[in-house]
## 1
Amino acid sequence: MSIRIGIIGYGNLGRGVECAIKQNNDMELVAVFTRRDPSTVKILTDTAKVVNIKDIEDYKDKIDVAIICGGSATDLPNQTPEYSRLFNCIDSFDTHARIPEHFDNVNKVCLENNKVTLISIGWDPGLFSLNRLLGNAVLPDGNDYTFWGKGVSQGHSDAVRRIKGVKNAKQYTIPVESALERVRNGENPTLTTREKHTRECFVVLEEGADAAQVEKEIVTMPNYFADYDTTVHFISEEEFNANHSGIPHGGFVIRSGKTGWEGEKNHTIEFSLKLDSNPEFTASVLVAYARATYRLAEKKDFGCKTIFDIPLALLSPKSGEELRKTLL
Amino acid sequence: MSIRIGIIGYGNLGRGVECAIKQNNDMELVAVFTRRDPSTVKILTDTAKVVNIKDIEDYKDKIDVAIICGGSATDLPNQTPEYSRLFNCIDSFDTHARIPEHFDNVNKVCLENNKVTLISIGWDPGLFSLNRLLGNAVLPDGNDYTFWGKGVSQGHSDAVRRIKGVKNAKQYTIPVESALERVRNGENPTLTTREKHTRECFVVLEEGADAAQVEKEIVTMPNYFADYDTTVHFISEEEFNANHSGIPHGGFVIRSGKTGWEGEKNHTIEFSLKLDSNPEFTASVLVAYARATYRLAEKKDFGCKTIFDIPLALLSPKSGEELRKTLL
């Protein structure tokens, strides 16, 4: 029997989840829940339904795990506790500072309703967090470094698009190669914001806009660009659509630490991602952890969990015996 | 109260474990057990004892976790089941093909004696296995690549040292950079043995030995060198001692896979290690997982386990709440 999945919210992430389910034979998409008129939402899976979110209670016994694909700012803080009453759930809540509060809210609902919900699953928070924990535990005497990119920052792209005269824009965050090399060489440097990342913007101007003025507004924008070295390229709409329509991302988590009686030996642990599509990869992580959610619920190990609490064996469709034989 | 640790076997790995315990405030070394005359074994920790292995039963209630630092060929297949009668244990058994058999032997003893034993903990098997599992689960439609090095292969160094005329030798395994780049670029290449790694030997000759003959014996040696491009350097004993006395190692585990409805997008997950000392790093991994062993025993979750079965939260001295706040 397949693990029956529901998707709540059908933007880039929800569509990514649908694609990832297709790659996992032990899973089946039952329904996509949407706030829009269901007749206007076209999905790819013939055998699944599109359902108005108002009717979600009807699916209480028809879904094993609900993958919630809303945004962290306003959707997930409400949706994840709400739907954890009905289903085992998983979300990708990524507002790092508010995770403890979100955890407590979700945990309470899960324990009252005998449900398992995993929060903050993805790559950061998510796989990057897992590697930070591993690095700290294995090399207690060391330093952590996280670099992001090369990839698209939606927040920074939006900020540029709000400037008067900008028709469209995309912002790439780029790690500084020389800083990465210093970290990899075990120099344990202290790095400023400017030394770690640069920012590169591709901008399509409105007719008659003042390029020099737009560039100045970008590179001096507080919080977003002022603390970085920023390059601005003005390009045509055709070039923008041809070369900058994707949502690539990635990054590096590095732990550099010392061992030995007097700390004589240096070691570097590095985890990195290079992703053609940020939402499709995040969706693939969510789907693997949906399998773990299902198995924890089968074991009645209820409550809210994070990526730190999940043995990796639970992510794989293979049995423990097969895993030991083929992957250990 | 500290976690009380015993070390069984005091070679490079045992000494590494002793150093790693010093870096973890919640742990305490109680005793080192040795087959040698204890009076001939000097350890670094003032507060710990050196004990003849014959007297190990006296420590049954004085140790929470025994870290077994024997060799995989002949020590661990006997030692780990034997000492799992007395203690929760952890080993770094690394004969991949015999892991299922070792698991079954150890599991039986653990269940009969209410003990937890973790086997095959280190970096390969170990952290590399964890990343292979993660990559397979997140990107089911993809390929696995493992590269080792740059690092010292003890087996290959030993093989060179057995050649007539060789006084001392060290062999480095080196990943081929262009092969690594092809994998990172998502080309999903099929790579031969020769295309993945080269081998480099540093050899000190006995007086009057025939260098050309030694070189020929090395590069044509079946299983060890014949399938590789091998470079041989003859050096003086002084240079050998100055530059080749360490045991560095490392490597790369890469998963390259596709997502999307038609598999349009490519992603690369890479985990890599650069280690000044192979045994000290392996020891650091063992000590972090010894903490998990202790916690599983506290929860009475008895039996043999592998790295796949352990939630990473159990590796850290921090509480779940602290981890969510600081590392997620």
## 2
Amino acid sequence: MIRVGIVGATGYTGEELMRILANHPEAEVRYITSESQTGTEITKVYGHLHKYYDGVQLKSLQDLAEIAENTDVIFIGLPHGHAMAIGKQLESYDVKIIDLGGDYRFYDTAVYEKWYNVEHTHKDAKAVYGLAEWYRDRIRDAKIVGNAGCYTTASILALAPLAKAGLIDTKSIVIDAKSGMSGAGRGLKLSSHFTEMYDNFTIYGVTNHRHTPEIEQALTEFAGEDVIVNFTPHLLPISRGILSTCYADLKEGVTAEDVDKAFADCYADEHFIRLLGRGACPMVKKVRGSNFCDLGWHIDPRTGRVIVVSAIDNLVKGAAGQAVQNMNIVFGLDESCGLQQVPLYP
Amino acid sequence: MIRVGIVGATGYTGEELMRILANHPEAEVRYITSESQTGTEITKVYGHLHKYYDGVQLKSLQDLAEIAENTDVIFIGLPHGHAMAIGKQLESYDVKIIDLGGDYRFYDTAVYEKWYNVEHTHKDAKAVYGLAEWYRDRIRDAKIVGNAGCYTTASILALAPLAKAGLIDTKSIVIDAKSGMSGAGRGLKLSSHFTEMYDNFTIYGVTNHRHTPEIEQALTEFAGEDVIVNFTPHLLPISRGILSTCYADLKEGVTAEDVDKAFADCYADEHFIRLLGRGACPMVKKVRGSNFCDLGWHIDPRTGRVIVVSAIDNLVKGAAGQAVQNMNIVFGLDESCGLQQVPLYP
Amino acid sequence: MIRVGIVGATGYTGEELMRILANHPEAEVRYITSESQTGTEITKVYGHLHKYYDGVQLKSLQDLAEIAENTDVIFIGLPHGHAMAIGKQLESYDVKIIDLGGDYRFYDTAVYEKWYNVEHTHKDAKAVYGLAEWYRDRIRDAKIVGNAGCYTTASILALAPLAKAGLIDTKSIVIDAKSGMSGAGRGLKLSSHFTEMYDNFTIYGVTNHRHTPEIEQALTEFAGEDVIVNFTPHLLPISRGILSTCYADLKEGVTAEDVDKAFADCYADEHFIRLLGRGACPMVKKVRGSNFCDLGWHIDPRTGRVIVVSAIDNLVKGAAGQAVQNMNIVFGLDESCGLQQVPLYP
Amino acid sequence: MIRVGIVGATGYTGEELMRILANHPEAEVRYITSESQTGTEITKVYGHLHKYYDGVQLKSLQDLAEIAENTDVIFIGLPHGHAMAIGKQLESYDVKIIDLGGDYRFYDTAVYEKWYNVEHTHKDAKAVYGLAEWYRDRIRDAKIVGNAGCYTTASILALAPLAKAGLIDTKSIVIDAKSGMSGAGRGLKLSSHFTEMYDNFTIYGVTNHRHTPEIEQALTEFAGEDVIVNFTPHLLPISRGILSTCYADLKEGVTAEDVDKAFADCYADEHFIRLLGRGACPMVKKVRGSNFCDLGWHIDPRTGRVIVVSAIDNLVKGAAGQAVQNMNIVFGLDESCGLQQVPLYP
């Protein structure tokens, strides 16, 4: 059994790791931490976990050495800026780290420093970017995995096949993404207050959301040329789910079949990517609670654009599910091990 | 492997059976039927089932004999009135039947005929009432299980310990229940139209809902005296979940500890019943997607009443989950086999 | 023009007063206050008020004397405990006070002190209870109006005709009420966090909600005998609306026609009460944004109970709308003046 | 008083006309029609209208001549294809027509025929396009107004100032729009079924939605050159509201101030357009129930794009509200007459 520690367990990504790992046949949660609620039983924080984590108490980061010595992998579910300190501290420990924040996602830490406005303190980390379908070969041997972000997973999975096949103008990309409110976290703020957001819909982070450079890093790598995008996030009045609508100009002469082939070439054998096909319209509820990414695409002969649409559950494929998928890769398990949750529909 | 047939697979209870059985280690779905969509692949009807039921086509009831010969158990997810015909037709087949409708829930078919306003055509059926926690001894040997209704499961589980222990005035019971919209089914009607019900809440079926006699039948049996109740259903603008608020006058001299003990005596060892305790307030989202029933209770010394509150997912513990639990009982499996879905929260 | 001040304008009741008064032909808002956001323009706090309150800044309670001297009526939208200090301070000013909190709702301040757990510091206030339909004769000459609470308005309007006509057993009353989340206010707390409450439903305040004694005070007065009730609130995952389901035992010999007559006698001429009739099922969305209270009722011959169902918008008839109705009464206007908002459906 | 007829009154646009006109000081509804519910009282169809339209019965189109003779204006709330027959039939009557469908929106009926796939039978109609802010001079004298569509109103209002000022590349426009479910109408279909759409979000009509040519027609006119766009609609799980996110490449040398000025030049004096400013993020709930269009815009120096965001209530500014605004123009009233509904927030 893989022994698991979860640092920052009271946020939604931590909670979701616990939900998924409760039934994982090859892993078990040994430690969970929270600085604000140290000593509390997790079922007092998340009542839905009764019968799975009865009696399990939250530890503190002060116990980090003990945790590292008694676990095989530590998931970090803290706000950005904290994981790099932990990663540095655990360099000499024989424990893998999967960080669900932004600290270890960038090849060039200067990009991180610019967009996150904080100094990177672990620049020589042996970290790899944790988008499982595209980087599993690197993830396999990683000490630290910088788990891909939620919006970025939805957006990169949608556009990567076209970027890689060289079918689109890399300067023409517009990504209009919509996320459920769990993406805004459990921290209290007026913009996440029920009465404010119910029966509402809004836009935010226009031109400056931190997932932008992460998307550009990956697409630049696949395209082999600089990619610069407009990424625009919106907030949906639902709990879970991201739908990403991605626009790009097709290069001259590219056919619909070329586009179809690009998706099939990349994803036909991927368990967690469901190719709904050309003309298909994904829905977030059809992936709710699961690790799937549903993809549909459309060609517009009038404008010469391709529109790719992806749907994921932001807490699963966009966070905890992909983190477990990465853990499975790191420990040589089948990628879908423990991730067979059927979408909860309706 | 238990070979399963699902008759009426395109309704929400049929869909939910497929979701649960997709990961059941001891059962597999062999046949699914729909009269309105015979021949269609189920993934065209329920896209979220992609990767689990790819290529599986809906059969017709005309294939019933074939289905009965090649399955061990048939779940029926049809509107009331249809199951009794099927049950009669399959009397000589070596196949178990678990009906999720109302046809086989009543000891006295005259009660069924009165409340459902239809003649019962299978009065000599060897059927038992399928509320797993209270009738597992009978279910074990049943040919036909009349799976308990959604509201009834929530309500009986809440009140049965008090009725059995003789703590409440059996003429004083008021059950005020609230259900998510999936309980109204997938059939199109204005009252289930999104724009009509969103940001809305309403009451219906006051004094005449068909789950009333089912609740009375069970509580009468446990109390050993005639129980008559007011059961009032309401529609919540959510997908899943029932919360049932049950009021009863405590008999003279009954203490809070007596009430606590009644719940502990009945449910302390039940896997699917989570006793949140006296003063606790269940929430429907904390059981969403799972087979749990959460219970909390309150004593009001001012009025002498006890208020018991139960929460279930109407499609799981209130329908498909309990049906699988009943299947597990019938086939000698552990009751929780294949039913370990952790509630999907948040 | 009636000159209006609103103390505590940044809460939802304050906001709602501004919404309603923006179009009131005989009143205009002259002052609004907030201690936490003094000096801020109200349109920064509530962007929907652009074009109605452009440039209007929030004042402080420190300006209370100035406000009192330049207004005819002051609405107080503060948490309980604050209004009585203000009321005392303004005793000598020629300004009416309409308090939307609990401070001035009780004849017997000992009841207030017991349920609100705070000392009442303005026991000799000339205050009247502000349930417009039942107390307009007193309200007309009041200095201070203790505007009725949201749950209480829905519950008293439902049961008062039966209590007054002596048709029900006053010890048998059970009120099961459900409220939208705006009733929990704009203050941040986990239980009002979007992701926690969306697709959720829960119960709270069982046996001890502060609206209980307010309901009992009114029904006791109408019935002419001590009324004691179980009042149980629930939280609906919607913004606005209360639906109150009220159960009571009918006295021996009471007929359905007696019940019908009781409602007609009390409400046939009331503008804001819409008698949907016996057998009718009110919906909260049909009163959304309006000052109406919709009523339906049901007789259960099996149990001898009557079930009365009321629906209001908690922020309008349950707070700001009724407060304006009370203002209209105090200043001799037609009660519906400025309150002609048609319900916003769908 | 302007005497009003509403043809097709049982759809949501018809209902919304009744809601708005109930309080219009210069107009009154004289006739309403429905073919499916002729003879029914409208309050049986829309219970929220009690106290405003008590006793008013639905007529039939067979009464059209009578209606035309006794009204000054007829609003048509029927599916496309029906209005042109009515318009032709009423050519000789002294009554104005405001059609809320697509029949009279196009200068070139061939465009209509291509996108709507139906023959236009009233090609010589004296119709004008009913986007009030941009066409009021033409609307003033029109016999027939083809009221602008919901998505189109949100999209054109967002982009027209930039097109008119020549600031954007007219081939670069991408419009990603999101609408509440009332936009899908009251007709029953699975995609509008509560349980299917709740906690869901989806895309539809990619590359082929009928509002595309309407947007192109207007923007082409303002830009003075052919505009071709990608318009992509999505369905929000809310009742009302459209948010339209519009992307375009800025022409070389265009500054942020140029963009600001374009909006101010066009809209500074418009009552129903609220310029939230550069960097602002509109929300649909802040216009709910009102005739406002909120606008915010963003410049991205990295990509050279401008992103304009508009929010409207699809049933008000996107349908019935704008229709009343057009009526006000036609009859020489102040445009905001009867349209002073404050947004219903929260």
